[in-house]
């Protein structure tokens, strides 16, 4: 089926808006491609350094300058559950490469931090900037000019967007992203959330909370709720950067191993030495980016991607806006209920039919661009499948099931959970913001209440503990933007705000920070732009001002006389306590040059 006219119109608008930067980007990609096999330009001394530590057979292959050389960019560390399985991937990839006459080398390791560990801690203020550090780190590895293609080993929140920015910057190289999969299901997410709220109320102790958290996050693999990490995996498949059916296979299984080996061989097959040369710079275009936004809305994915997708698109010379994302959200029905949008986890989603079912449903409804290029070949229809293991240990693919295995988790377009994706752009006299309403009950989507203003998460939590928030309230947490402190996630505030909502109070959050991929039942106007430190109106709100968050009409307003509000001066705020400790002093330059949230909150120039 052809894509719906409304979606095509949005894509055309993005293409036209992006024409100057996209053409300049593609010209750079083609220039790099025209220079031919890259090792051929290295001197003998350069090349000798590049393969000095290789096994004899690999060294001989690289000396001939004809064997493909595959770069491995890995985010492995064994502190992150999602990335711990990557420990042995390089050897698997090297073995697979040798089987097809190629070589593979680890070109770079990139940092990978866990927002679950740093949530509510000083280290969280490095989190968003870690995306750009990852892009820089991967670029250093690829800059050795030794490679014909690259595979990228990364899963979690900022890691995949950072790797994508790097891959697109080296757009003359084919790129395949290789996931490691989600951990097996543990304590149900709603039970974990209940214990968190009881702890916030002081009804259970730290021992009970730690026990619940440990039963939830209990082994290797991605956290099983549908946050940014699993939204990343969905988007990589939607953009054709995974091999089909590979996103949500559990770690350390025979199928996972077979998929990893297959991905390595596929990356080699799409180099210039093969017959299907597919550099990522040509492959990813406006249609690919729109498909990622469609997937984000159809699955109720992470709000973080309203920032990351803009930065990713910009790396390919494509200009994506919050307005585009909202208009796509208005077209795309919600087809998945995965926590925090429901009780199920990603393993339940995968068992119900997963991405193969979802992609087929969206294609058949004209809500995805089918005529895109992917690492698997032309056409997204190739991804409407399930991957399985054959008796001989190879991967086979069968069509995705015609019916969902569990319609509490995954439904066809004809029985969508709601007609829109639930991501809304809010505008008004406080600037622009994003709100995710797919997990917010309709009765909580319009909140008008007095503001309580905070400059730190700790201030809000203290006010909650002292009972000062036991009323209708819009919690305004400001000076949390990229320039102020790196734009941390504020998910640690969720239990307290959830308790207030459960007590019957009308509650909302307004912040120039992020809320996280786990944005849940409390309405949250996040990414407020301009941020407070950049002179945004959010800096002028005072305690007691009536603030209106209206996800129905898309308005974010402070109900203060216009002239009075304009006359208000911003009170000076001392942010020096945020400039040091846990490495924050090293990121001062990043804070100074960080872009706005609606432009990707990036340190990189938009060219």
Automatic annotation (TrEMBL):
Q: Which residues form the Dihydroxy-acid/6-phosphogluconate dehydratase N-terminal domain?
A: 68-381
Signal peptide residues are none
Q: What residues bind [4Fe-4S] cluster, as annotated?
A: 156, 223
What this protein needs as a cofactor is:
[4Fe-4S] cluster
**Family statement drawn from the similarity comment of this UniProt entry:** Belongs to the IlvD/Edd family.
Its EC top class is lyase
Its UniProt entry gives the catalysed reaction(s) as:
6-phospho-D-gluconate = 2-dehydro-3-deoxy-6-phospho-D-gluconate + H2O
Which pathway does this polypeptide act in?
Answer: Carbohydrate metabolism; Entner-Doudoroff pathway
The entry's function note states:
Catalyzes the dehydration of 6-phospho-D-gluconate to 2-dehydro-3-deoxy-6-phospho-D-gluconate.
The record's free-text note on cofactor binding: Binds 1 [4Fe-4S] cluster.
Kindly state which keywords UniProt assigns to this record, in alphabetical order.
4Fe-4S, Carbohydrate metabolism, Gluconate utilization, Iron, Iron-sulfur, Lyase, Metal-binding
Q: What is this protein called?
A: Phosphogluconate dehydratase
Dihydroxy-acid/6-phosphogluconate dehydratase C-terminal domain: from which residue to which, for each copy?
A: 408-601
